[in-house]
Each structure stands twice: as structure tokens, then as C-alpha cells.
Amino acid sequence: GIQVEQSPPDLILQEGANSTLRCNFSDSVNNLQWFHQNPWGQLINLFYIPSGTKQNGRLSATTVATERYSLLYISSSQTTDSGVYFCAVVSAGGGNKLTFGTGTQLKVEL
Amino acid sequence: GAGVSQTPSNKVTEKGKYVELRCDPISGHTALYWYRQSLGQGPEFLIYFQGTGAADDSGLPNDRFFAVRPEGSVSTLKIQRTERGDSAVYLCASSHGAGLYNEQFFGPGTRLTVL
């Protein structure tokens, strides 16, 4: 099946700093989503972005489907950004199920 | 409701017992998914319903796991003869359907602990 790798696995930032999280996938995808899992375990939808670029406030994302990667940008980070960020894809040949990456654990400190 | 809801939020059971976990999808969503998340890992797919039928159950680990969605809305995940290795957070998601409308939205999960 499709493989999804995220980097870095762990990241510590000072409040106000910017960061880029990367998601690589091994095959063609129909869909790609970015999630933030907060400390209470809730998966929060950030972006639905099978291709192109989107922005939402301090967050933006870019997916280059032909090169099989996606990037999530966090600017002016805040302590509430802490948690785990997951990239998840629906493989072009894999039905409708999401395959999740390994996640990036982000901690934003004062 | 506004989002996907799951009950109970926590379930503690003893090895060998039977459990049922419930999921209420977003109103109007025809597709419903179950995932399982173990500590420190990303969610893993279990089963997907389109309407009342299971369109893909390839992620169910064995025949102790079963899920139903009899009226095309609420779904129940059933686990027989629970084992300690079944302990995890069980997540439910729903979406409008396939293709362009396949953005999945997740519920808060049920944390299952098998003693």
C-alpha cells in the first residue's frame, strides 16, 4: 500500500517562530488532508488539499501532486499550535480510506 | 448535530467481554469510516460504509470485529471476546461521499481499555 512519511518527527519552537512540516507519499493520491490532533485527542481539519496552495490565517499548505509531497507552513506560532500534525492521503488506487503519516509532534514554548 | 459524535467517550472492560461503540455521523453524510489509533501512532483504517453497506472492510484485524450501519446513518462497531491488544482509541469519521467530496471529519473518539 501507499507509504506516507512526515518530517521532522519532533519540533520545538519559541512562540512567534515560523516552521515548515513536510509530507512525502509514495504513490498517486486522490485526496490529501492535514490535521492537527490537540492534546485531548481531537483531530481538527486544517486543509483538504489534493493539489495547489491554500491559506487559512497563519497556516498555509501546498501540495505538489506530481512530485508526491505536501508542505504545511505555520507562521507566528502560538502555544495553542502545540500537538501532533498528521498528513493523510487517499491513494488513487486505494478506495476511500485515509492512510495517515507518522505525524510531527510540535511543541511551542513561551 | 454539528459534528461527528461518538459514545461512550471512555469504555473500560475486562478481557473476554463484548463491547459496542457508537458513531453518529454529520447529518447528510453518506460515507462513514472507522479507524483505530494506538498510542504514539497515526489512525489506521478499519472499515468504510457507503450508505448501509460495508464498501471496504479490509482493515478489520480479525473476525472478532464487526460493524453495522442498518439505516445508513448511525453505526455501531462491535468487538467480541476483547483482548488487551484491542485497547486503543476508536475514531469515527464521515464524509459526503467519494471523489471531490471525500473530506473526512472525525469524531472525538472512544478510548477503549481492556483489562
Radius of gyration of chain A: 13 Å
Mean pLDDT across all residues of chain A, rounded?
96
Strand content of chain B: over 45%
Helix/strand structural class of chain B:
mainly beta
- Largest interface, counted with CB-CB under 8 A? A-B, 22 and 27 residues
Word description of this protein:
- The complex is a heterodimer of chains A (110) and B (115).
- Chain A is 0% helix and 59% strand.
- Chain A is built from no helices and eleven strands.
- Chain A has strands spanning 4-7, 10-14, 19-25, 29-37, 43-48, 52-56, 59-64, 69-74, 83-91, 99-100, 104-109.
- The radius of gyration of chain A is 13 Å and the shape is globular.
- The mean pLDDT of chain A is 96.
- With 115 residues, chain B is mainly beta.
- Chain B has strands at residues 5-7, 10-13, 19-24, 31-37, 44-50, 53-56, 65-68, 75-79, 88-95, 105-106, 110-114.
- The mean pLDDT of chain B is 94.
- The interface between A and B is medium-sized, with 22 and 27 residues.
Summarize the structure.
With 110 residues, chain A is mostly beta strands.
Tell me the layout of helices and strands.
The complex is a heterodimer of chains A (110) and B (115).
Chain A: E1 4-7, E2 10-14, E3 19-25, E4 29-37, E5 43-48, E6 52-56, E7 59-64, E8 69-74, E9 83-91, E10 99-100, E11 104-109
Parallel strand pairs in A: 2-11
Antiparallel strand pairs in A: 1-3, 3-8, 4-5, 4-9, 6-7, 7-8, 9-10, 9-11
Chain B: E1 5-7, E2 10-13, E3 19-24, E4 31-37, E5 44-50, E6 53-56, E7 65-68, E8 75-79, E9 88-95, E10 105-106, E11 110-114
